[in-house]
Amino acid sequence: MVGHEYGRFYPQPDERIYAHRFAYNISHPKPAPDDMLVLHICNNPRCVNPMHLYVGTYSDNNQDTIRDGRSPHRKLSDEEVREIRKLYSEGGITHRKLAAEFDVHKSSISSILSGKHYSWLN
Question: Which of 38, 52, 80, 81 is close enough to 118 for a disulfide, judged by CB 3.0 to 4.6 Å?
């Protein structure tokens, strides 16, 4: 998933290039195909070291995030969802702190608390 963590630049006003893709393309004889991703073995989105970069598919990227424990799609148990709601209703805890405590993205906490996700537990 490409986010704001990735270095990028704009050679033309309507053209965006991610720094790691650019680094890969100028350091390898064959540039990465447009339908492929440039992935990091170091799990550092800002890294542009060509030795840390390789070409892969979206599936490869998803498997990497799961294997490395970085998946933003971690499934929470019903008990964890109830605990999140309980802690938040008691006050004094932010979405960010809940996300860190339960190892999920802050947007997941927002979706749980708004009832967008896990609505059957309301």
Answer: 81
Give tens-digit pLDDT for 41-53. 988 888 999 999 9
HEC states along 68-100? CCCCCCCCCCHHHHHHHHHHHHHCCCCHHHHHH
Which amino acid appears at position 10 of this protein?
Answer: Y
C-alpha 96/C-alpha 89 separation (Å) is: 15
Alpha helix (H) residue ranges in the chain? 19-27, 58-67, 78-90, 95-102, 106-114
Angle between helices 106-114 and 78-90 (to 10 degrees): 80
Q: Which residues contact 11 (CB under 8 A, 6 or more apart)?
A: 17
Any long-range contacts for 105-109 (C-beta under 8 Å, 24+ apart)? 105/72, 108/72, 108/74, 108/76, 109/84
Question: Does pTM top 0.85 for this prediction?
Answer: no
